[in-house]
Design brief:
By secondary structure, the protein is an alpha/beta fold. It contains eleven helices and seven strands. The two termini are 33 Å apart.
């Protein structure tokens, strides 16, 4: 896609730097927009990239990527709305703002949402660099999820090409709806996974408070997370002991409310996204 021009907003931010670096290695022509002087300096120093004004970046752009915090998406999208030509593909990196209806009501635009799965904890990459790439987008392969919220079918193919470039290297690519993406994040990844991991950390800190040496508690917990997760998620064949199964049976109602799966109800997802955005 050597004739495809991308306007990247938020190019010098935490996520924008990752995208800027990977787009340099792609065949896309990228124009970088960054309002922060620190972000502009970072782009110049680390990647040799000069930023341009928003109007210059948008002139004739085929694709606009909003690599911005969820709380800014609505305001920035509205501010550039008049400069977006019909047929422009607007790419969002998270489902929250699109799900919440923060994008301009423009049926002549295409909206594409894509998000990384991040490298699996079962990381069998052949190099140390890849094994240490926890976030993805550098050396470790990761899968991605994407949705064409509106627009012609050919824009899904273009959006996926861009997604494969910005999150490379890619393991698998999954297509779904924006509502389904919201089930995955914030639902599954943040409300469930991040919360339960924070609870596990709280548990580790508590046994340390009760006298276990911190390094011993950490080694014990992370080692058990490794083997228990491998069995629970079918990474390896195995079965838990009777004692472990009894601990799960009695532990789950002690730790979890009976109705906890309600966090995936659309109303709860919507409320979570409202707080985020």
């Amino acid at each position: 896609m050597t004739n495809t021009t991308i306007a990247l907003f938020g190019a010098g931010g935490k996520m924008g730097m990752r995208l800027s670096r990977n787009l340099q290695m792609s065949s896309f022509l990228t124009r970088h927009v960054e309002v922060s002087p620190a972000g502009q300096d970072r782009l110049q120093a680390e990647l040799g990239i000069r930023c341009v004004a928003a109007a210059e970046a948008l002139e004739g752009a085929d694709v606009v990527i909003l690599a911005l915090p969820d709380t800014l998406i609505g305001r920035i999208a509205a501010s550039i709305d008049a400069q977006l030509a019909a047929g422009t593909l607007v790419i969002l990196l998270d489902a929250a703002a699109p799900f919440a209806g923060h994008l301009p009501a423009r049926p002549d635009l295409s909206y594409f949402v894509t998000h990384p799965c991040h490298p699996s904890i079962f990381n069998n990459e052949p190099t140390l660099e890849a094994r240490l790439d926890r976030f993805g987008g550098l050396a470790a392969s990761q899968s991605i999820v994407s949705s064409l919220m509106q627009g012609p079918e050919e824009h899904y193919a273009l959006g996926e090409q861009v997604a494969r470039a910005i999150y490379a290297p890619i393991l698998r690519s999954y297509r779904m709806s924006v509502d389904q993406m919201a089930l995955l994040e914030p639902g599954l990844s943040e409300t469930v996974c991040a919360t339960l991991l924070a609870v596990m950390r709280d548990g580790m800190d508590e046994v340390v408070r009760r006298g276990i040496p911190r390094e011993a508690a950490r080694d014990f917990l992370l080692g058990h997370m490794n083997i228990l997760a491998a069995v629970i998620f079918d990474e390896i064949p195995g079965a838990f002991s009777d004692a472990c199964n009894k601990a799960i049976t009695f532990g789950k109602p002690r730790l979890m409310r009976d109705d906890w799966l309600g966090v995936f109800d659309k109303a709860e997802i919507a409320e979570s996204i409202k707080r985020i955005t």
